Amino acid sequence: MAEHLARNPFPARGTVSAEETVLPDVLREWADRTPTAPLPGVREAERLAEEYVQGFQDEATSHGGLGCLYGAHGAGKTHAARRMMARIALLEPEAVQLYVRFQDDDLVAAYRRLVPQLSQGLLTDLVVRYLGTLAGDQAANAGVPADRGRLMSALDTEPTRVFDLFDAHLIEAGRVLEAQAREIAAVTGDGRRFQRALSFLIRPEFSDAAYDWLCGRPIDLDAARALGVGEQIDDPQTCRYGLQLLATLVTRGGRPFVLVFDQCEKFLLEDGVPVPANLGLQQSLAEVVPRAGGLLLLVASEAGWQAMPQDLHQRIGPGAVHMMPLVPDDARLVLRVYLDAVRRTPREDIRPITEAGLRELLRHSGGNVRLLLQLAWASFEAAAAGAEINADVIGTAALRYRRAPGLPELAMLVESKLLAAGLNAERVPGKDASTTFRLPGPPKPQVVIKLSEAVFFDDEVSNAADMVAPGGDITSAYTALLVTGYVSPPVLTALRRVVHTVLVADGSPAFSRELDELVARAASVLAAKDRTASDPALLSETLRELRAYLEELGSQRRGESAALTRNLAAVGGPPEPRAASGWPARRAELIHRIAEVRAARAATDWDDFRKARARVVREWKTRVVLVICAAVAAVLLLMLSASLGGTSPSAQLVAGAVLAVLAGGVPATLLARSWVFRPGVSLDARADLDQLGRDLRPHARPRAADPAIRYAHACQEDPDAGYRALANAILVEPLALVRQALGRRLAMTERSPSECVEEVLRGLRERIPEVQLLLARRQQHTDPERPPRTLRDLRPELRILVALANPDRLELAAGAPSKQPAELVLAALGVRGPNHPLARAYRGGVAQLAPGEIPPNELRAAARLLSPLEPDGLGAYDWLPVVPEIDELYLHFEELLYYQEEIRSYR
What we know:
Layout: H1 24-33, H2 40-57, E1 65-71, H3 77-91, E2 96-101, H4 107-114, H5 120-142, H6 145-157, H7 161-167, H8 173-187, H9 191-201, H10 204-214, H11 221-227, H12 236-252, E3 257-262, H13 264-268, E4 269-270, E5 273-274, H14 276-291, E6 295-300, H15 302-307, H16 310-316, E7 320-323, H17 328-340, H18 355-365, H19 369-382, H20 391-397, H21 407-420, E8 426-429, E9 435-439, E10 447-452, H22 460-467, E11 478-484, H23 489-495, E12 501-505, H24 509-527, H25 536-567, H26 583-644, H27 648-673, H28 686-695, H29 707-716, H30 723-732, H31 736-746, H32 757-765, H33 789-792, H34 796-805, H35 822-829, H36 837-844, H37 856-866, H38 883-906
Parallel strand pairs: 1-6, 1-7, 2-3, 3-6, 10-11, 11-12
Antiparallel strand pairs: 4-5, 8-9, 9-10
């Protein structure tokens, strides 16, 4: 029996909604009482908040911010946006934050709901503080810069003192108003009306009318004439100017300004068609609000994001956060956070929900956060008190919600669609209950439609490889894969690289439309003449790259999962009795330093490559010029000799011509050996190099002078047939960027890591660390009862890579213990058993380890071995696929050291 919970921990409505009046206290209270799983989208939103507040507080680097959360409805975008606002309210309580959810494409209606979120008193205070800032600027211009600091300090506590300064003629009011007019004109196209409204806002007899006008409300004709403004703001352009002015007022008054536009797709699209005028309005706001020092956050669906112009995408840049469907680890995290909110003691499991129940939740929800929580709520209500919530309970509860078809239902649906289109398909059942439709039939089907069960993370690598295994089906002219309910987002992206169409059957109207399009395309393929199947060689190469990508993906996800498991110990749990630890700040500092060092290393490798190619191109051009000059000189001398006849001087000219030819022979020979293709191509980014490498594949060879040709060879040589050639090439390659490409290519071989130990040891003797890519892979084709001896005999630091790449088979790295620092790392991973103190601390947090259990010098040595900041640390090899897990191990040992220092300081 599972633990009996006092109440249903899940929300019946799923993800939260947000009201349009947001006070700092309300936001902070919401953040305290609302469970929030630190999913990638939430973490990115909080990062955006922290970067904006930190940048705003530093006057030297003060800047605004721009971000966009986009994804499917119910992906948790509004929750993440609200979490961002709560984070800003915590970091900067004086921040002014406005939120609006678009209901249609009317900016005027949205404006009239936005501005009234500021009370009349607050807006008046902002105007007075704005005048004080302008007065401070005026004082600095008229006197010394220190005058501004003293003035602003005085006005900060009592902003209305600025009027005393005007009355005493200590500051010229006229100059301040002129500066105000200039700034207002810079952000509005109707500066005079807005300046009049702001001026009358601070005059009690006209303040109400001015406030109503600024809020977009109608005012009577007499008040409009007195203020010198129109009766009402009623056009989108003026609303845009008003929002831009508001951002300037707030930030110039010294307070952060945050503007959140939710459901932007309703503003940008009308019946799915982009509205050009609204696109322009949003783009203008995205330019002016950050420039004024504010933060603009756009929240949109996938369609809304696609409707935004490309230059806006570029302007948003890293602020764009794609809220993807949940992977199983994320779903487990969400459920655990809600369960811990009502459990007596937080735990790492998700009981009463079983693992099979989790998969069923994902299959029926498609990884959508809102649907997953709604279905979890319904399943909890349907289950008996204290009983397990398994797949059967969830399947019954899912009848009330959108339900993904099962595999038999999906097969019947596809077959009926094909028959309705007049297509005869052979239905072939698979060994694993899957189904395949082949059209027009064996032995060489032209169209293949395969149906599969849902694909979850823990089996996605093997499942994906099975789905696209080389054979007759995958080489057909058109291939499609239909998966019931759910595919883990990363593997969905990978599958679409080798299958023409991949659809997730989630029971939605969109899936029905996509299925109709699939059937129509299949019919057109069958009707077309001269049908060509996929190139087997190209397909084999793509499949090889897919497997390598999925292996690297698995490593990254394991690292992220381990980090989340350790960092979630405090979520929903009781507060620590002792003082707050300074480790989170120290961890953030280390992560920032690691990112900086890695960026510098990548820039160095990239610069070395570009300089090497520039040198080769320059030498090649010099040889071309020498050969041409020698040829021209020889021709001229011979022509001159012919014109002079057979005299002695002509013999000398002939001899000179022979010498010119010989002089050009050496550069001509070198030119033939070091030919450069596309010498003028731009190499501004890695994408340019990858494209050049693909273009130069016909000319690829390992000993070419041009590094681009060597890079092309590294990307196209067969890692099995050309294994020895690649292994030899990496030993003599001088450029790190090319060595990394060679190492990644070698790692695609079908040989298991245990069969590559000789090449790894040889490369390390030659100081070629890139050969370690051969070890940082999953060990395959071995008897699980008899681990390869070659791996267990490796040096301990190399066995770390084996353990990280094979977390489910730690016995592969269980060599003879030694006194090396790597043994502590292996113990933390669990190679020495799950009950080792370091293993418990790594899984459950540093509190699992007694303060003096491991000497600090040993912990420091282990951290240095893993460090990304040391030249010879494992983490410095940024190209390793297991580098996320190395980073987590490094931070774990740094945390242990920090923990010991804290314990000593408390004592």
